[in-house]
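Q: Predict the bound structure with 1-O-alpha-D-glucopyranosyl-D-fructose.
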Amino acid sequence: MKHCYLLLSISLLMANCTEKNTTEEACNPINKTWWKEQAVYQIYPRSFKDSDGDGIGDLQGIISKLDYLDTLGIDIVWLSPHFDSPNADNGYDIRDYRKVMKEFGTMEDFGQMLNGLHERGIKLIIDLVVNHTSDEHEWFQQSMSSKDNPYRDYYIWRPGKNGGPPNNWPSFFGGSAWEKAGPDGEYYLHYFAKKQPDLNWENPKVRAEVYGLMKFWLDKGADGFRMDVIPLISKHLDFPDMDAEMLKHPEQLYASGPRLHEFIQEMNAEVLSKYDVMTVGEAFGVSPELTQRLTDERRNEINLVFLFDVARIGREGWLQHDWALKELKGLFTMQSALDNFHWPAVFLNNHDNPRSVSKFGNDAEYRVPSAKLLAMLILTQRGTPFLYQGEEIGMTNYPFHSFDEFDDVEIRGNYAQILASGVSEEAYLRELNKSSRDHARTPMQWSDDNQAGFTSGDKSWLAVNPNYREVNAKNELAGPNSIFHFYRQLLEIRKGNEDLIYGDYFDIAPDNPQVFAYTRTGTKATYLVILNMSDNRTTFEPGPAYENYELVLSNLEAESGKPGAASLELRPWEARLYRGNNSVR
Ligand code: TEU
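A: Predicted complex:
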């Protein structure tokens, strides 16, 4: 009972239905669906596998690795953008939504990839990037050509003010969010790079175009969408200047447009409700209240959102500060304390963040055990897990020595501004070695061959991490005790295991600065997860209630000691999963 009161104080939105808590939110039985039960694997196609030697990953490359994905045991692939694009932001700048990027292949290749996935029982969700297009999109070319063009209102144009842009809004990728273009001397809005003009969602024609392209891909057989920066689509049309405080977090204003829910509900009614699909929105900048509205099952908007809190813990812009395990635990507790009308998405890294083993583990001495520990963490949380390519083989951050080695538009766009603000190049480089998006974008390391087996060419679009001779999928597949096989085992344990999927989450030691320990209590069993998230040995006593628990999986060879989980000696980065039939709550 003590546990229950504690949890109640965390949030009113509790999953438990207790005597003290009989609201609809607490007592409604969970609606069980496939996208809550399955595990997702993100592919960043540019960096996954190249089939034609040009140094850029492609769809045939993915096709050649479908058996690898099947062996791993993931259920859904999320493919980062595969559409025609001039690649100012690696495909997050789309020139034609109905064409495949030529470097990646053809529509036939897409069909072959989709069939290959479906034949293996794997679903495919694709990236929906509709806050902005490329400036090379036909709509924008038309829009820019004159004020009277029928496409003018597809984008957001405003006259300048006092010889400058319409207001002081910044772009995430450096400089003003406004750019002057075309013969009429007006400015267009771009929250990201200049080559990514924002669409005008106020225009019903734009919305109809978006719904049309969504249907186009769903009718081809896609199983859903990851929605890029979806909370940014509705704009504050009075375009107020930001004060100094707001300028520190422009995304908060950008993500609070008045018509967001209306637009998404319309999209749901027009498109999503007509298919059995899953949707996950990138909840960039949104408040907790807004997040809950977006994913409330009663509101018919989107299924899941990615909250940035975990992957970005300790981050302030490009600065990476230290963080405490207690903070991380708090974030997982918050996410799993949602009521049964909400379901969390859990992830530790993606293509916009550094490698999880480098950020949350120890990518040197304890790379292998800490990568396995993180596998256990992400696959035993309450929520749909999203893995990122390379995570399953323990890929690490890239050791950047100079700015020439970066490709990212975010760094190139912000570089001058950051240096002009008085930050030294060394300091900026030091932080980027912790925080850069390019860490996640180096080619997938398939083998110890040239270019890590990513390409048969002699150059990859972004340099391969020099540790590829040791860290590669070939080694991982061959070693029965590898990180890959640990992921595979955990995915297998999780599959169809309702207690581990839907079971209540409870952090049994929230104040322990070194050990992350929690239970998942379902109808048949309670699982106990114990993670020593440090380079030091320690002892941990979950208590007599766990005496009869049996070890299901551990990331280190068994050491002699007491059976059961009542009292434990833990080695650095040791991770254990126990199962007990008795409920301890
Ligand atoms: O990301 C949005 C996003 O949150 C980050 O790019 C963010 O702006 C940046 O890292 C802040 O430091 C999505 C995509 O995931 C990303 O790859 C794209 O660059 C971006 O949108 C624009 O489409």
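A: The first strand starts at residue 40 and ends at 43.
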